[in-house]
Amino acid sequence: MGEPKLKRLAESTLRNVEVRNGIEVSGYPRSERAKVLHVGVGAFHRGHLAPYFDTMNAQLDEPWLIHGASLQTPRAGQQLNPQDGLFLHQAHGADKPHYRLIRSLLRVGYVAEETDDLIAHIAAPTTQLLTLTITEKGYCLDTVTGLLDRDHPLIQHDLTTDGAPQTAIGFMLRGLKERRARAGGPLTILSCDNLIQNGRRCREAVLSFAELWDPTLAVWIEAQVRFPSSVVDRICPAVTEADRVRAQQLLTLEDRGTVVAEDFCEWVIEDDFAGAKPPLELAGVTWVDNVASFEARKLRLLNAGHSALAYLGGLLGRSTVHDAIATPTLAGFINDLWLEIGATLDGDAASSAPDYCAALLTRFANPNLDHPLEQIGTDGSQKLPLRIIAPLQERLERGLASPRLTEVVAAWLYWQWGTTLSGAPLSFSDPLAAQFKSVLGQRQRCTVPAAIDLARSYPPLAALLGRFPAWESDLGQAFASLPDKLLGQTEAR
C-alpha cells in the first residue's frame, strides 16, 4: 500500500500548524467581504503583496482582505480556491529561512469564467483598492511611445466585443463603468509592475481606452479614481517541485499554492489615494510624494543587472542568478555595467547606488534562492526599453561610450536564435517571438548582418540606430566578439 494521501491545506485543516516547524500564522478574522481586488495572482503577488497585507491585517480589527482575478489561465484559482486562498510563504536568506501561512487572500476568479462576478467586485462600494501585477506586457503599451497601443489586437477585442475582456485595461474599464452606474464611490488603482511612473502609465492607458470606448466614463475616472505609482522590490523565483515538497513536509498538508521569495523586501508607494487607504506602514511600506528616485535605482540597477545576468549567463549555460554571479567574468561585468548606468542616475538614486549595488551582489549570490535565468529572460522585448535601452540612449546622447550596455543588447539578440553558445536550447517566451522568427527566417547562424536586421525590426532599437548611426558599428562589434569574451575561445563564423 502507498502512503496515505495528505489532506489539502485549508482553514478547516490548519490545526496546530502555527506551532509546527516554526510556521507563523496570524489569527485575524476572515469574511467574504474583500476591500482589495488584485489582478494577476502569480508568484510575485503571493511572494510580495499578499504577505504585506497579511502582516498589516494581523494588527487590525478590520482586515483588508483580497479577492483575486486571473486573466490568462484558471490555474491560480485551481491552486488556491480549494485551499480557501491559503498558502505557505517561504522566505529564504543566506541563513535561516522564515515560513508564514498567508491568509490575506480569499479566493481567485478566472475572468473568462466569472466575468460578471469579478466586475461586480470592482463596482462594489466595499472595494477600496485595485492592485495590479500583470507584468510589463499586460498594459498593452507601445514599446516606443509608452502609450496604450490602440491597435493591439486584444485592445481592439475589448473595445469592440461585449464578451469576457482579454486585457487588464479592458477588464478594469468594464468594472469602472459598473462602479459609476452603482455609485460605488472613489477607487484607487495601484500598479506594482516594473514601469517608470507605473501609476501614470496605468492612468494614461485607462483614460485612453475610456476616451475611445465611453468619453463620459473618462471624465468620471478623472474625478473619482487615483493612480499612485509604486516601487516593489523582492526577488520571487518560479516555484520548483522541491519547494512544493518542502511545503508539504512543513505543513503535513498538501499546498499547491506555495511561493518562494528572498528575505529582503521593499515597497514604496506614492501617498495619493482616493477614499480609504490601508495602513500598510504597519507592515513596512514607505509612503512618499514621488517614487522617481526609488524606481530609477531599482529598474536600472537591480532589474538591469538581472537582465544582463540572464542573457549573458544564459548564453554560457548558467541556470540561476547565483550560478551566474558566481562566474568571475560575469560578476566583473555586472560591476562595470552598474558603473555605466550609475552615470545616468541623479539625486538620491545616485548617492545611494554604491551601497545598493553592494547589497544587490549579496542578494544575487543567495545560495538558497534558485532564480531561473530563463524566467528573467522571458518577455525581454517588454523589459529591455526601461532597463537597458533608456540608460543606453542617455549615454549616447552625452557622447559616452557604453560597451557593457551594448553587450547586453548583443546578448539579447543572441537569445532570439533560441540556444546557448554551446547549442543547448533556451526555454523562454516573448510577445514578439513570431516577428523575430520571421526576420531571422532560415538564417540559422548568428551573424552580424542578421543581428542588425533583427535590431532594426524591433522599434526601440530601430529608433536608437536611427538617431545614432555610429552605434550600429559598436553593436555589430559587440555581437561579433561576445562569444570570445564569454567563452575565451574563437568560434567559426
Structure description:
The protein is an alpha/beta fold and 493 residues long. The chain has 19 helices and 13 strands. The strands form three sheets. The protein has a six-stranded parallel sheet.
General shape:
globular
Within the CATH hierarchy, at the fold level, what is the topology of the largest domain? Rossmann fold
Task: Report on the biggest sheet.
Answer: 6 strands, parallel
Largest beta sheet: strand ordering: 6-3-2-7-8-9
In terms of topology, how is this protein built?
Layout: E1 24-25, E2 36-39, H1 43-57, E3 66-70, H2 75-80, E4 87-92, E5 98-102, E6 105-110, H3 115-123, E7 129-132, H4 153-160, H5 168-181, E8 187-191, H6 198-213, H7 215-224, E9 225-226, E10 230-233, H8 241-251, E11 259-262, E12 266-270, E13 286-288, H9 292-315, H10 321-325, H11 328-342, H12 347-364, H13 373-377, H14 380-397, H15 403-415, H16 433-440, H17 448-457, H18 459-467, H19 471-487
